[in-house]
Design brief:
The chain has 686 residues and is mostly helical. It contains 31 helices and 9 strands. Helix 25 runs antiparallel to helix 26.
Length: 686
Amino acid sequence: MVVTVAVATGEGAMWRRLIGAVAALLVLFVGSLAFNAASGQSHWPGPLDIVRVHPWVALLLLVPLALLELRRESIGSRTPRPAAPTTYRLPPRNAHFTGRDADMRELRRQLASAGETAVQVVHGLGGVGKTQLAVEYAYRYLSKYRFVAFVDAEDPDLVASQFTSLGRELGLVEVGSEQVVPGVYGKLRDRRPWLVIFDNGERPGMLVPALPSGELARKGHVLVTTRVSGWLGTATVMDLEVFTRQESVALLVRRVPGTTEGTADRIAEQLGDLPLALEQAAGYMDYNRTAPEEYLSLLTSRLEDMISRGELADRPSVLLSTLWQLSVHRLERERPQAVRLLELCALLAPEPIPLDLFTAGPEPLIAAAADPLAWDTTVGALAGLGLARRERSSLVLHRLVQAAIRAATPDDVLATAGVRLRRALLAAVPHDIHGDPDARPRWHALLPHVLAMTKGEPPAECAADTAVLLRLASEFLLQIGTYGAALSLCERALALDEALGGRDTEVGFDLITLAQIHRDLGTPERARPLAERALRLHESCLPTGSPAIATDLATLARTLCLLGDHEAALPLAERALRIDEEAYGPDNPYVSFDLIALATVHFDLGDAATAVPLISRALRIRETLYAPDHLYIGYALLFKAKALHAVDDSSAVSLARRGARILRTRLGSTHPKTENALALVDQLSG
């Protein structure tokens, strides 16, 4: 009766376990006696013999075992089982969540290592996946919390109403608006540990009233996602970058059947590895049943149109084309000069943009650049709202931010900005690419933007500027050994200058640059007529002693050497040297080019002894003016090594090795000039 009552009053589980244990032992005991009686044995094997001789002693031995089991069950029943975690407005889990393993580990480490209270900010560009990371974190570590809440913080005015709703969810009685936030956190003390996610938080000052403090914050984690800078004084900040290329490819291959890794890689390149863009691309291909190769073609030719197409299943209202509109509208109200800067940056390459492009020159591109403070806050506004990344002396915009700005900007505004940018670039790039020792780093920084601004047919008002930019870019590419791209740009420059008419001097510059490209490409038969025409044009429109004529003469002389016409080349090279020495003096970089041209003629004529001092003088000039790893020094070293070898000088090998190292560093191991240099080292060492 006692057992029956106990079972009926809620302690049944404990008593059922005890009764089961005792019943099992009794069955064993009685069964053993029955077996003994049936078998007639007088002796049982091992410990069972005690049951035959002392059956009641064996039964009493069961009592401690039963009490021990009763105590264990009693202790277990007093241990509280953790309640299942509760969530409030937590979005559904993204079934296609990809990668981010390192970011997830870092996020967990930051929160877990912060002690009992943690405020963690995930900061990054719109579309980079901040919200998705926060939601995935909540699901992945749900077992670590008893309560998880998700608050939309994009509009600070609506945060209070969401806390009122959250308070009702927690059983909070009606309280005033000023008490609702502490009231919610007070209720959460009974749900520790807890997690509250504030999604798309604005400036820290606007969200701080909704954050817990003091005792209310103990054993709680706050996670804020934001595009806006300025959180370092309030919380720990983790900057979330775009996907790695491996993550981008993995997402596309999994989401879009039939996508090869190669095609996925090229799509990811066009989309800048932005997670939202990749999801939108997958949605577009899935809905329209577009083949990945066809989508890539559309993306390449019509990027501004494609960013407005492709629906996300879980966020149908989110599109790349409108993702940054609110930030731009805010800038237009607060800092209109920042919008003008944004429009200019949208036309340039998705590479670091030197800030002095907008401030240098007689006419700064941005009016705010006239005041250092106004300029700093104008640039800072783009970085602060997550529209650009500010580096020490440059701005970097994601290619899709640029595309969205271009798509939203009127054509006439873009056209005017394009004309101004071409003029600014023409003033910013070094024009004396071969003679200026500092030209190379500046051109490396500006070349992507020059290429971006010289695509397609230029407006009539800036066709001449575009032609000069194209030729200068081709000269730089020639200098660094990128001959194919140099040839294409210079041919376009020549076509523009010839179409404009009345530009004989510029046409001559285009022609001689083309001749140098063909010479270095190993087609001197094409270079010769170009150099001869350039010389005729310049002799007809420039003074006799012009250095431009000396460049034409030296280029033609070296081309004639390659064609075997050394007798014709010699007087041309000698004349070029006289012109440049008279114009520049004996130690100018252009004098070194003339010396090399003259030495080439003598060397090819079999007179290495005359060539060696000419090369040595050219090398001394270059080593004085250029960086130690400059290609011009490498070329001179290799030429001197060949000449010294011809006169049996043992120092040739060390010079050749040094020259080959420079070419391998600057051009790479597979460049034809590097391969020739390494072959020379092997030849001289053999």
